[in-house]
Design goal:
Elements (H helix, E strand, L loop, with lengths): L2 H14 L15 E4 L6 E8 L4 E8 L5 E6 L8 E7 L5 E8 L5 E3 L6 E7 L4 E8 L15 E7 L12 E6 L17 E6 L3 E3 L4 E9 L7 E9 L8 E8 L10 E3 L12 E7 L5 E2 L4 E5 L7 E9 L7 E3 L2 E7 L5 E2 L1 E7 L6 E2 L6 E8 L3 H5 L6 E9 L4 E10 L2 E9 L10 E9 L4 E8 L8 E2 L10 E7 L4 E8 L1 H7 L7 H7 L7 H13 L2 E7 L4 E6 L12 E2 L16 E2 L18 H6 L1 H11 L4
Helix pairs in contact: 3-4, 3-5
Length: 618
């Protein structure tokens, strides 16, 4: 096929079938924004096109020098991906895709994969706007994924490209947020209802779980809760670790007052079906327009348990708190009543993580085959639309994987760069359907190189958890479905003679935690039979057993072709590339460096589709 014929075909096809993605031009409004530093000097806007797999950033910094924005990882700045630019005194702009070869030294990438859309400077600000692919083939470029991303922002006071640690900031952000709050409806009849603990004296202990029981709004007919947000006193924000609201069965006999959730009085741990939840780093969350938490009917809960986890590591005395959750509800009903299903590793007492582990994986299995029997009524297919991930300080990654008829179906949600300080409810880009009989597996990845003793599952922040909350519709009565391994088998595999689970846990203290024994323990926990515990809103509990299935890594899409190469085992194609269009040549001071010609004419999404269909490169 000649170049002229190919160009005509591209032109005709592009005119007939334009991109269905959200194409972002140099003047398009960018929906998301955030300050990246404590002094509010660095302001970032961004948006993305999921179809074309292109993200656009606009960085505005209070400086007349150079600015830089990129992606780094949690352990070191070495290898960080950084796009830099600025405006020279003569008005020319400079713009470059670079990376850090050590903590302080920048080097230009051999492949320039960032596309400049604008670079301006006035008396106060330098503003740089550019786009880049989610995944280029340049080995120096970090991928943009649905994981938590550590965004690196830096700047100088003049045009000398030199990193200054006092002007370099890293912030964890979930960049690919599917739903923006502005995209959702806010009913005109919205009513606010606060669930809070009032003037509670936070104990001087490291960890406190404070619980109280409160009524939900009293309404004469059905309403829907459609949004929630944390209520935090500013000076206490760092002490509140998480807040959970649990629905209580209407037959429950509930205590009064405030007490330790998991202390001497077991009544304060009643009610286990989560309605909403917030944790460190989260903000408000609004449900999709077709779902809400139902209140006001005979089948709906009338009371809730409010649980607040306080971490008073400095043992401060005399601190009073009135934190809680603010609910927004409406009489304008949504199509579906939603629920929350808690999955993961049953926290206490079996969970353990060895010290000194570079990597240790824990698993919690859920089997749904008994859901209908326990629900007391038919259970329709569960439609999952959102999730909340939760571990404590040793957690590094989590995922929930779905199996049907013994075969892996999908990864429902995951975060390979989990950050304890950014725990928020996130929307799925699709609705994941769970059918009765499916198995759900939660895998948690921990690192304990900074610890010299065992870490056990438990309530304290220095203990661990492995939980994923799935937000779904239509609601049923199942509140949690969690698993744990046969600890007697694990102990025997580690050479310890035990006869009951308590002895098995105690025996973990006898093990010398060498790298070999750490891997042996991980393997034994995965191979052991799983005990699965299923619980309903009415505190009905059923047990079953199962085995941990293998997790097949999800294939990754092809990278956008560039010089160099980045091919990984999970790539969908052996070469790992998708063709990129010819770029306009330009100097380092060009205002549109390496701007793809055909993408400029027809849109990146249309071009990607065409090239994939024709299986040709330009």
């Amino acid at each position: 096929m000649t170049c002229a014929l190919l160009f005509r075909l591209l032109l005709l096809t592009a005119l007939a079938a334009p991109s269905q993605g959200k194409h972002l031009g140099p003047t398009s409004r960018l929906r998301y924004s955030r300050f990246l530093d404590p002094s509010n000097v660095i302001f970032l806007r961004w948006d993305f096109d999921l179809e074309a797999e292109i993200i656009t950033f606009e960085l505005q910094v209070r400086t007349t020098g150079w600015v830089g924005l990129g992606v780094t990882n949690r352990y070191t700045r070495v290898g960080s991906d950084l796009v830099v630019g600025g405006v020279l005194p003569d008005g020319n702009v400079y713009f470059s895709d670079q990376h850090l070869v050590d903590e302080d030294t920048l080097e230009e990438d051999g492949s320039q994969d960032a596309e400049l859309q604008g670079l301006t400077e006035d008396a106060l600000y330098t503003t740089m706007r550019f786009s880049r692919p989610f995944r280029s083939c340049d080995p120096h470029d970090q991928d943009i994924t649905s994981d938590t991303i550590k965004v690196l922002a830096t700047y100088g006071l003049d045009d000398t490209l030199k990193l200054d640690r006092d002007r370099t900031f890293i912030k964890s952000i979930f960049l690919l947020q599917i739903v923006h709050p502005d995209d959702l409806d806010v009913p005109e009849d919205t009513v606010i209802h606060d669930l809070e603990i009032t003037d509670f004296l936070i104990p001087e202990d490291d960890t406190t779980y404070a619980c109280t029981f409160l009524p939900l709004p009293v309404v004469s007919k059905k309403h829907h809760i459609f949004k929630f947000e944390p209520k935090l006193l500013e000076h206490n924000e760092t002490m509140v670790h998480h807040i959970l609201v649990y629905a209580c069965g209407n037959a429950s006999v509930l205590p009064t007052g405030i007490s330790d959730c998991y202390g001497a009085d077991p009544a304060f741990s009643l009610c286990s079906q989560v309605i909403v939840g917030w944790a460190v780093g989260g903000t408000s969350y609004q449900f999709p327009d077709d779902v809400g938490v139902s209140i006001g009917t005979p089948l709906d809960p009338q009371w809730i348990r409010l649980e607040i986890h306080y971490s008073n590591f400095h043992n401060l005395p005399g601190v009073y708190d009135s934190s809680g959750i603010r609910l927004y509800y409406t009489a304008q009903l949504r199509k579906y009543d939603m629920g929350v299903l808690q999955l993961g590793f049953f926290t206490f007492p079996i969970h353990f993580i060895p010290p000194g582990a570079e990597s240790f994986l824990s698993y919690g299995l859920c089997k749904t085959e008994k859901f209908e029997e326990m629900n007391g009524a038919p259970v329709p297919d569960i439609q999952v639309y959102g999730y909340l991930l939760h571990t404590h300080l040793a957690g590094r990654a989590l995922q929930a994987v779905q199996y049907r008829n013994g075969a892996q179906l999908r990864t429902i949600c995951k975060d390979d760069s989990y950050d304890f300080n950014l725990q928020e409810t996130r929307d799925l880009p699709y609705r994941a359907e769970i059918k009765l009989g499916d198995e759900l597996l939660v895998e948690c990845h921990y690192q304990t190189l900074d610890r010299d003793s065992l870490t056990f599952g438990g309530p304290s922040t220095i203990n661990e958890m492995c939980l994923i909350f799935l937000f779904y519709y239509p609601r049923n009565n199942i509140s949690s479905c969690m698993g744990y391994p046969d600890i007697i088998y694990v102990a025997h595999e580690l050479g310890e003679e035990v006869s009951d689970p308590m002895e098995g846990m105690m025996a973990m203290n006898n093990v010398e935690w060498t790298p070999e024994n750490i891997k042996k323990a991980e393997k034994a926990c995965k191979e052991a039979q799983q005990m699965v515990i299923i619980k309903t809103i009415d505190e009905l509990v059923e047990n079953t057993t199962g085995w941990i299935p293998e997790i097949i890594p999800t294939a990754r899409g092809p990278c956008l072709e560039s010089s160099g190469g980045k091919v990984e085992p999970q790539d969908k194609t052996p070469a790992g590339f998708r063709a990129a269009p010819v770029a306009l040549s330009g100097s380092s001071t060009a205002s549109l460096r390496h701007l793809p010609l055909v993408a400029l004419l027809f849109g990146q999404g249309a071009l990607s589709w065409l090239l994939a269909t024709l299986q040709v490169g330009v």
